[in-house]
Amino acid sequence: MWSVDEHLADVLFAAAPLPPIELRLLEAQGCRLAEDVRAGADLPPFDNSSMDGYALRTADTVRATEQYPSVLAVVGDIAAGADELPKVGPGQAARIMTGAPVPPGAEAVAPVEWTDGGTGTGQAADAMGGDQDAPGDELRVLRPVAEGAFIRRRGSDVTAGDTVLEAGAVLGPTQLGLLAAIGRATVRVRPRPRVVVLSTGSELVQPGEETGPGRIHDSNSFTLTAAAIAAGAVAYRVGGVPDDAATLRAVLEDQLGRADLIVTSGGVSVGAYDVVKEVFADYAGVDFRRLRMQPGKPQGYGRIGGERGVPLLALPGNPVSAYISFELFVRPVIRTMLGAPDVHRPVVRAVTTAALRSPAGRRQFLRGRYRPADGAVSPVGGEGSHLVGALAQADCLITVPEDTTALPAGSTVDVVLLTD
Ligand SMILES: Nc1nc2c(c(=O)[nH]1)N[C@H]1C(S)=C(S)[C@@H](COP(=O)(O)OP(=O)(O)OC[C@H]3O[C@@H](n4cnc5c(N)ncnc54)[C@H](O)[C@@H]3O)O[C@H]1N2
Ligand code: MOO
After folding, report:
1. How confident is the model at residue 294 (pLDDT cuts 50, 70, 90)?
2. β-sheet bridge partners, residue 23
3. What is the pLDDT of residues 167-180, one digit of tens each?
4. Which domains does the chain have, with CATH numbers?
């Protein structure tokens, strides 16, 4: 028998970060950067207005008041995206929209609310006049405007040559937006591992179909596929492969091409129909071992597919065993392939609200609910590895060490937190 830690070490020994690839921005969401990204140009790329208003020279507004406005000649109209800009001289202003380039000669922008909007009334405007082609040709400015007011300076956000994101950064919405803003269409990242999830068992029926005598719905392929996605993988679900050597070989052969990792459930124990185990051992080069843990005792792992050798983890079929095995062994492999620094789930110390029992010589992982407020943890459901109802209520695993068979309520235990 092997310990949990020995098995984890062996499984991780064979795992490595996937080689970086160049991906389009939205395909790279959630991935880690494999390069330092530098800005090729300034952001903003040019001085521009942060308000709808009038670009002008500050000296012209020094004595402006509501009673005695400064009167300026409007010499042009600048929309965002404009490339031909009027020159603003003394006594002149140009109507300007938010984001539009500040024209030569202008030193500040007066928001439209600080002017009469070119209406000739001398009353403060609350919006730009609607006529784009013919802005009023005489503007009254109702207060002084300071040098640089409402101008977003070129390079004030990002300067050309700046490292804007470092290798290892995770690309979320705002990082992807920044990459787009500096003009990057693609980026070099560690890709998400492609995980093929395959559940074996002739008793399995897909959800939505009638079960019939002795048959059950395939739930593992859903749990494991969802868990792989939650861990950061791209996952492909192949549900319900019958316990038949030829079929299983064909399916494995077929799936190999699109997999960085294969995860199977079922057929790893000692049953008479566990042809799966034979196929994995002979064809796929998978070793089987029994671990000093409960649930999750029987485990297989190895590499399949000759040269390239895709790692394969064969998990036990009992649904709770399969899920716990995923969390303890498969998730760290996926996280390693992603190049994540945190490959393991966090473990906290907590006080159990109920007495716990555990088989001698096995590390037990009981399902529990953890209360961060007071550091208490309560078991949910029993020990049985078929209890999917209780599993769905749990948010943590309560660990009872190998050498402990009973713990009274109030004992301090290690708890593996399962929430993302
Ligand atoms: N004589 C022994 N019997 C068993 C031992 C043992 O040491 N000696 N180990 C037990 C333990 S522990 C486990 S765990 C299971 C592992 O069994 P297998 O990996 O061979 O899985 P199966 O026999 O195919 O199925 C076990 C159980 O899980 C259900 N199952 C399987 N696949 C799915 C699925 N995709 N969705 C939902 N449920 C699934 C299956 O119907 C069985 O009830 O072996 C024990 N036996
Ligand atoms: O180890 Mo099995 O996984 O106890 O149910």
Report:
1. very high
2. 187
3. 999 999 999 999 99
4. 4-18+192-337 (3.40.980.10), 21-41+166-190 (3.90.105.10), 48-152 (2.170.190.11), 347-417 (2.40.340.10)
Q: In this predicted model, what pLDDT tens digit does every residue of 316-332 receive, in sequence order?
A: 999 999 999 999 999 99
296 lines ligand 2 (CB under 6 A): yes
Does any ligand 2 atom lie closer than 6 A to the CB of residue 294?
yes
Complex prediction ipTM: 0.97
Q: Answer yes or no: is the C-beta of 255 below 6 A from any ligand 2 atom.
A: no
Judged against a pLDDT cut of 70, whether residue 137 lies above it is answered with yes
Rounded distance, CA 214 to CA 203, Å? 7
> Residue 55: which of 76, 70, 24 has the closest Cα?
76
Establish whether residue 220 lines the binding site of ligand 2, counting it when its CB lies within 6 angstroms of any ligand atom.
no
Pocket of ligand 1, beta carbon within 6 A: 199, 201, 203-204, 216, 218-221, 265-271, 274, 295, 297-298, 316-319, 321, 385
Q: Which of 215, 224, 268, 269 to mutate to test the pocket of ligand 1 (most atoms within 8 A of CB)?
A: 269
DSSP for 64-104 reads --SSS-EEEEEEEEE-TT--S-----TTEEEEE-TTPBPPT
